[in-house]
Amino acid sequence: MGKKVMGRFAPSPSGRMHLGNLFCSLLAWLSAHAQGGEILLRVEDLDRERCPEKFSRQLEQDFLFLGLTWQEGGSLGGPRGPYFQGERSGYYRELLNKLEAQGLVYPCFCSRAQLHSASAPHASDGDPVYTGACRGLSKEEIAEKALSRKPALRLRVPNEAIAFTDGHYGPVSQNLALECGDFILRRSDGVFAYQLAVVGDDGAMGVTQVVRGRDLLSSTPRQLYLYRLLGLAPPEFYHTPLLLSPEGRRLSKRDEDLGLDALREKGLSGPDIVGRLAFCAGLLDRPEPARPQELLPLFSWEKVPLEDVCLPKGLF
Ligand code: GLU
After folding, report:
1. Residue pLDDT, tens place only, 173-209
2. CA of residue 85 to ligand 1 center, whole Å
3. How far apart are CA 37 and CA 316, in angstroms?
4. CB of 219 sitting under 6 A from ligand 1
């Protein structure tokens, strides 16, 4: 028998979760439980200044309102904590040391304007491909630049295609040097980067299955490269389509009329919302109330669309 599936919720409490976050969390919950697995909750408050504590507290209540339970993490704690990224910097520092010991990390003094200059080629996710301007700085140049500017730290990437098979979208391949460039491990303000933290944490917490929005599909090759360098076992990845507003816009934490408070004020219950999300995910023919547990026998990744899903007008 294979290892027990460990899925996860990894919300960033920079605002209240929106329906798109909850859509993805519902699929993560169903996917893990359909395989007899569990869920852990890790709060991705890396940048504590942007993550007020009230949102960290709120997100647990939002999950519970929908019946999206977890077995470990968040305020439940557990053996592999802390489960708040804001409390894990010592661990991220160790990860960085491992990469530094391999000679793969260098300081980057480029300003935002330099990075976003018109000539920089752009990757599929819209971010500029790093040109490598600071890749070959000498010790003297580094010392001189450091007098006037705090550097970010970047990881050297190979001119190599990293390929994997997404559980939902199928084969994906990306040449890191050409399509992404050397990427940031720690920002110039000292905050560790999402890519490093998420790999270190999923690796250390025994996560075997990652389910998240397809906006992170193009981050996955970078993450697989980090798994390799850090000697951690990578999970399986399933990316989900994004949930869009009825007008076809990406949902954001500012869409308050589609926030849980507004929906609760309209009198919608947890099962009302879960059923409608399951309808959007192709699991129900009609948007009727359902609890996550009741959806388990209906769940299969084949039913979930590949195209992003526009919320039908008037559904919420
Ligand atoms: N914390 C990220 C977010 O809320 C998710 C990261 C991940 O699932 O890898 O968008």
Report:
1. 999 999 999 999 999 999 999 999 999 999 999 999 9
2. 12
3. 31
4. no
